[in-house]
Amino acid sequence: MKKILLALAVLTVNFCLAQNAKNEGWYIQELHYPEINLPVDYKNFSIEIEENNENIKLNDNGKQKLTSFNNPKLESLIKSYFELPGYTKSDNPDFIIKFNNLGLKHIVSTTEKKAYGKDAKNTYTGIIEIKSEVEVTVKDLNDSIIFTKKYSRKTKSESIGVYKNSGIPNKTLATTLIKNQYQNNARDYRTSKNVSEAGYIIQDISKSLKALFSSYYESKRVNLFQIKKEEKYGIDNNTQVDKLVALNKVDYSDSYNQELHKLVNESIEKFNTEIAKIKNKEDKKEKKIYWALLSNLSGAYYAIGDYEKAIEYAKKRMEVDYNKKWKFNLEIAESRKKITDKNKS
């Protein structure tokens, strides 16, 4: 009897799972609006760089001294990594971007790992981190500041936590060992590590200023849902979802929006046709299909910029007693509507 009940339980679980909606990530190309709107006649910029001619500083558990390493020059790194879509670097600029290289720091520190159990002893790890700082100021030709920020990042460069095949028993030894290892790796810092870290912060700055001042298309995820064993219920949803997800491999081009709108409008018509087949929205099987189709309608309307409709269908989905944790499509539609409304005004 127990075996029969167990078998029935397994069959019931599998049957219920068969109705579940399966999430598919759909990535569309979406216009990014700049966070700071420069005057429309601003087309060109120039770059000023204040290099740091001091040697890199070493912070040894709070005590600071100069190393023999030079701070990397930013000029070549900016040429390699900095871009600002929609604007051109020029000798006749409309605005100026100034980089003030505040330099790198090498930081020596230790961490303690708590030990538990009888006779267990805490162990220590010695760490070297590299911290980089660059101050960026964007100003107009009248020297009025448009934007300023100190950028910083910290990266773990190396560590040591083992001595003579066991944990390091005290902070002093961990500090001594990591400093010896650091000195032995001096060539790596001189030839690559310092320059790499300076390059990373320039890439961070480039990404930040791009988001602040540029318009461009970027990949945006929208959630769509497949319906497991849909044919059993006379539903034809999954083929249309597959067509939409196939756009994930398509880069933005002049014809992208036209092709997107054509496919999405076809999909909206299809999803509405399928949703009309739902007879009982309270039925435990049908409500999951209804939920998935509402999700797909919300995602489709989002993709063509009809955020009010996207929000409407996402809210309808929230009324269905199924998977209420899925709020992503509603959240992105509400957020995007605020952004587009702001940029219309």
Structural class: alpha/beta
Query: Helix tally?
Result: 9
CA gyration radius, whole angstroms: 29 Å
Oligomeric composition of the shown chains: single chain
Secondary-structure element series: HEEEEHEEEEEEHHEHHHHH
Query: Could you say which overall geometry the principal axes of the C-alpha atoms support?
Result: flat
The overall strand count is: 11
Strand proportion:
25-35%
Topology, pairings included?
Blueprint (H helix, E strand, L loop, with lengths): L1 H17 L2 E12 L11 E7 L4 E6 L2 E8 L3 H8 L6 E2 L5 E19 L9 E18 L4 E16 L1 E2 L2 E2 L3 H14 L1 H28 L2 E12 L10 H8 L10 H20 L10 H18 L3 H12 L9 H17 L1
Parallel strand pairs: 2-5, 2-6, 3-6
Antiparallel strand pairs: 1-11, 3-4, 6-7, 7-8, 9-10
Helix pairs in contact: 2-4, 5-6, 6-7, 7-8, 8-9
Written overview of the protein:
Residues 2-19 have low confidence and may be disordered. It contains nine helices and eleven strands. It has helices at 2-18, 74-81, 171-184, 186-213, 238-245, 256-275, 286-303, 307-318, 328-344, and strands spanning 21-32, 44-50, 55-60, 63-70, 88-89, 95-113, 123-140, 145-160, 162-163, 166-167, 216-227. The longest helix has 28 residues, at 186-213. β3 (55-60) and β4 (63-70) form a beta hairpin. It has 345 residues and is an alpha/beta fold. Strands 2, 3, 4, 5, 6, 7 and 8 form a seven-stranded mixed beta sheet that branches. The protein is flat and about 75 Å long. 24% of the residues are buried.
